[in-house]
Write a structure and sequence with these properties.
homodimer, about 450 residues, alpha+beta, Aminopeptidase, Alpha-Beta Plaits, 2 domains, nine-stranded mixed beta sheet, four-stranded antiparallel beta sheet
């Protein structure tokens, strides 16, 4: 009987082939025309898990089903709750893909397909690691619960409600969120922090109706001009936010975490050129680019609806205009408090010639995970050993609500990691996964089971 | 044989009935589904003019025909070129009309219908005045050329090209543009100035593609933020434009013209309440509301395309965004020069983290007409006598390109006047014309013929 590691080595082709099978299913959860495909991906996963004789449940939600499986044959040992998602992003613009997005193709050691990195190629490493044990020794070194959702790219409402209502069933000693990435090729990473978010809309109304700018220009307030004044009173030219009290609760990263970031293979000039493509980076003086993305709060404008936006010209002073904005918040900022300070400041700086109204949505809190938690230390050892290079601690600027749910609602230490590269194009054409990283990821997770 | 004045008095019902007939034709020139209706209005006018035995020509253009007629039976006397238009604005939102827009209805002495004030009810006063002479004495006190277009509400390209190419045929001693209005009920007015216009679009691009604001917020430039900074560097909170050299050529109105405006029955509080409906008026300190609308340049933002403007939220840092802007210019500002100063300033103040581009359209120069020109004096006497109240000199904040053509290209003194009231709703539901003003307008034009 081979060892689990020997099994994994011997079945590389099978794991790649399974990944390609799953990638051929266009499970785009945001597009209604792919409803059947998205459900098909859930059924594919359920069948794959059942082939290991695991009990599998398709848990229906208001949207797409959760795939739940568990192996609890190691009483007294820790339990790991593993998370991933089987839905994928849309593929537009499809003509920018080198090969069709749902026909997996290998080029230069990378597998190209929509979902290769985000998240099918990651969740399958966890299933492969489990298979390597169950199909050899017949048992795992720890207990495992798997919860795989199909709405990560379209809101994730189903899993949030389920986690809220089934904390008991999901009880575990640690979570593994396989939806993050590596620091660079060959450099495994664990994500210790995520920014939170709170956003909404500033609506400004001036005149009671759209006015002719010839007849009324010079006396009628222009809501876009008012918005420009409000927006420049929210953030200065250096990117510093001017809302009173905004930074009061910002907790700087620990010196050792920051020192770790400075050692990362991050080339700011290459980053600007390859990932941004603008004339220059912006941001608060005195903070490095990684710190600005990971550990500093921001405020962004996403769109400014209102007025005339068609081709040609229409010289209207619009009655109303709006700005869609959001703020990324960091530990220990509180989204509700920030929403309140934002609203108060907008109303205070809005010109008196217009009516301003602020509508804020529901926020998500920031997450910071201590590197001292035992599962983090175990994951670091496992990743370091499997990749042959010391795993590094990073953060992510984005918000992953499910991590907040696991960390906040279930109170669990969460290991956020994965095998996606910074240039994996997770939401763009030519999404890819490095196949060597895929296999090392399987080995890293097997090692992680042992280390736990 | 009755006198022309007696004829006009005796035919009030006929003139009103003819106006209603013309108003029943929905000649909306911007809407292709009203193409036949718009042409029908031209034919209606041609028939009405032919019924006085005038030679009439329908001059085809790339769009709708010009209706041209002339009576040149007074050699040695001055020639008047009269202008109006037979097309009308769309009627949306049609459910806000008290009576259907193309079923003329009289309420409280006013005739309600689309086009009643703008411009059918005005051009028909000129035709009625001519008829009162030709059907009594058989001759007019002056020579008259009539040029009536059908594209005033949709660009006016046809008449501009025709005027450019047929200056000889249109030779006259004065123009009468019947497409303006009264200062207040019972108070006739002559418009001595129009603002010009120059506008375009500021396009700002940051990153090479739309970016996720979570991942890249804090380092990627946001084109909307850059636009807010640019726009607040173009105009300050008091409405003063900050473009270097912008005000250099602004010629203030003559003291006596300004003094006349101060005597106008203009109630700023009522204007704010009834015409604007905003919390307050805006504008440069030290200038009255009328002066700000009529004789001060402005800069307005009409729309800001780009990013995400749908319902809900999408936390994107857009790659591109734009601002559609225009400036109203006054004598002696030059649109081309202003466009250049605008472009230079935008590029100078644009943040260096983005690429800014300015695309300016073709401008229209401002027009100022001297109150000393003999046709203006004649018109003032005629209006004062017909309405029994001294005609006042006003300006209009809007741009009427045909006035620039007549004044600039043909070099003619232009009498810009009409019977539309400030609350005529020319481009809104419930457009109306005061019928007493309609008949006094006919008498005023008859008197104007004599005074010339």
């Amino acid at each position: 009987m081979p060892s689990p590691v020997e099994f994994a080595d011997a079945h590389r082709a099978r794991f790649e082939s399974e990944l390609s099978d799953l990638l051929r299913i266009p499970s785009i959860s945001t597009l209604p025309e792919h409803r059947d495909d998205t459900r098909r991906a859930a059924h594919w996963l359920a069948e794959n898990l059942r082939s290991m004789d695991l009990p599998v449940e398709l848990i229906e939600t208001a949207g797409y089903p959760l795939v739940y499986a568990e192996w609890l044959g190691a009483p007294g040992r820790p339990t790991l709750l593993g998370y991933g998602h089987y839905d994928v992003q849309p593929v537009d613009p499809v003509d920018l893909w080198t090969s069709p997005p749902f026909q997996p193709a290998v080029r230069g050691g990378r597998l190209f397909a929509r979902g290769a990195a985000d998240d099918k190629g990651q969740i399958l490493t966890l299933i492969a690691a489990i298979r390597a044990y169950l199909q050899t020794s017949g048992r795992l070194p720890i207990n495992v619960k798997l919860l795989i959702e199909g709405e990560e790219e379209s809101g994730g409402a189903g899993i949030e409600a389920y986690v809220r209502d089934h904390a008991d069933r999901l009880r575990a000693d640690a979570c593994l969120v396989l939806d993050s990435g590596m620091a660079a090729p060959g450099v495994p990473a664990i994500t210790l922090g995520l920014r939170g978010i709170v956003g909404g809309e500033i609506e400004v109304s001036g005149a009671a109706r759209d006015l002719h700018s010839g007849i009324y220009g010079g006396v009628a307030p222009n809501p876009f001009q008012a918005l420009a004044e409000i927006l420049t009173a929210l953030k200065d030219k250096n990117g510093r936010i001017l809302i009173p009290g905004f930074y009061d609760r910002v907790a700087p990263p620990l010196a050792e975490e920051k020192a770790g970031w400075e050692r990362l293979p991050f080339d700011e000039a290459a980053f600007l050129r390859n990932e941004i493509g603008a004339p220059a980076l912006i941001g608060e003086p005195g903070y490095g680019a990684l710190e600005r993305m990971w550990a500093r709060p921001t405020l962004e404008i996403h769109g400014m609806p209102g007025g005339f936006t068609g081709a040609g010209s229409k010289t209207v002073i619009p009655a109303r205009a709006a700005a869609k904005v959001s703020m990324r918040v960091v530990a220990d900022q509180r989204p509700d408090e920030i929403a309140g300070a934002f609203t108060t400041h907008v109303l205070a700086v809005a010109p008196k010639s217009v009516r301003a109204e602020v509508k804020m949505g529901h926020g998500a809190p920031p997450v910071v995970i201590s590197s001292n938690a035992p599962p983090i230390a175990a994951a670091k050892r496992a990743l370091t050993e499997a990749f042959g290079r010391e795993a590094v601690f990073v953060r992510m600027g984005g918000s992953v609500p499910i991590v907040s749910e696991f960390a906040g609602r279930l109170g669990l230490p969460v290991v956020v990691t994965g095998w996606s590269l910074p240039d994996a194009n997770a939401h763009s054409p030519d999404e890819s996964l490095d196949l060597e990283h895929f296999h090392k990821g399987i080995r890293a997770l097997m090692r992680f089971f042992e280390e736990m």
